Amino acid sequence: MGPTVLGLLVTLFFATVIEVCSEGSSPLAFEIYDKSIQAGAPAFGNSFVFLMAGVATDYTEIGLIWHNIGRRAALWIPIITVPQILVLGYTFNLFL
Hints:
Helix content is 78%, strand content 0%. It has 5 helices and no strands. By secondary structure, it is mainly α.
C-alpha cells in the first residue's frame, strides 16, 4: 500500500470491503501512515483514502439513501465521491 496509484486502489478496496467507520478506524489509518513512514515512503494519501472511501462506499448509508431519496441519488454518491477521494489521495501522496 505504497504511495502509488496501485497502493491507493488497494487501500480503496480494503476500505470498501471492511466498511470503515471513520471515527473508530482512525487508529488503523494512523498505523497505515506510520508503517509507510517506517518503510521510507510516506503515504498520507492512503490514510486519507482509507478513511474517506469507507464512508463514501458504506452500503448501509447508500441503502438508506436508496430507500428514502431514490435510486439515482444513491448511485451517484459513490460515482461522484470516489474519484474525488482518489485524486485528493494521489495529490496528498505527491506533496505531503
